[in-house]
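Lecture notes, continued. The same structure-token format from the folding unit now serves as the input rather than the output. Read the line below as a description of shape only.
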């Protein structure tokens, strides 16, 4: 099925998570679903290893719903937020068959600010200033939820602002989290902030191409350097093969150096 909706062409394909509708011009998520029938599946596998049927899972920056619908069969309930009109349109379509997903067309921030979204498929950003389609944001703490077990946070550089609005959640509910960390300038401040709440942080780099993809496609159409950088964060020290974030100045390069040199810490790494 393909059709037009407010300009971008949409199409439905069979995926590892069931039928999914996507924008054909989306160079990342849509392209991955079309070619491979999945998107960043090793990331989803990591999340699945940390949730169970009693889990309340939050998807902040849900985009068109790849993570929400892939996690939903394995948890108690999914709450998904997506403020952008175009992405939210497909989020509603993709999550409709799942009775345990609640979607919200709102933005999460550190205050009750007004702003608008700048649509760019998977790189859509919330701009905190008046715009053509201004909407109001809200802190996560402002929702007064009494159970949150896991949060996936992917908001294109807005992650730190959102974390600042969930101090109660981090203190009292202590959810595990996957945070996208594409913005290197945010590493030190997010590390410092989560350290206040006694969180442990671990690197989770995920290439876009998965050799074991759903459609058995062997060609990497993105290139070896294409992927996402995440932190797995937990109030508990995890029994995991993931590399820890060792300090506020840690980087992917330092993590790779530790792996290559078979060391657990690189304080003597004199670059």
């Amino acid at each position: 099925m393909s059709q037009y909706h407010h300009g971008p062409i949409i199409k439905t394909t069979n995926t590892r998570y069931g039928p999914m509708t996507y924008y054909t011009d989306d160079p990342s998520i849509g392209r991955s679903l079309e070619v491979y029938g999945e998107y960043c599946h090793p990331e989803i596998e990591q999340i699945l290893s940390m949730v169970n049927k009693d889990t309340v899972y939050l998807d902040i920056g849900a985009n068109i719903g790849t993570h929400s619908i892939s996690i939903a069969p394995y948890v108690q309930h999914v709450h998904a937020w997506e403020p952008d009109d175009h992405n939210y349109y497909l989020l509603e379509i993709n999550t409709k068959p799942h009775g345990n997903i609640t979607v919200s067309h709102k933005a999460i921030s550190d205050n009750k600010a007004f702003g608008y979204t700048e649509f760019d498929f998977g790189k859509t950003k919330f701009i905190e200033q008046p715009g053509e389609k201004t909407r109001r944001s809200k802190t996560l703490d402002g929702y007064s939820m009494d159970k949150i077990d896991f949060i996936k946070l992917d908001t294109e550089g807005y992650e730190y602002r959102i974390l600042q609005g969930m101090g109660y959640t981090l203190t009292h509910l202590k959810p595990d989290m996957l945070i996208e960390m594409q913005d290197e300038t945010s590493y030190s401040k997010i590390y410092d902030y989560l350290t206040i709440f006694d969180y442990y942080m671990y690197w989770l780099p995920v290439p876009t191409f998965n050799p074991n993809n759903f459609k058995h496609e062997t060609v990497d159409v993105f290139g070896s350097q294409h992927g996402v950088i995440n932190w797995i964060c937990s109030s508990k020290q995890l029994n995991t093969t993931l590399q820890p974030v060792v300090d506020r100045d840690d980087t992917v390069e330092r993590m790779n150096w530790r792996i290559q040199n078979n060391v657990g810490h690189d304080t003597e790494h004199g670059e």
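Point for the exam: Residues 152 and 178 are 5 Å apart (CA to CA).
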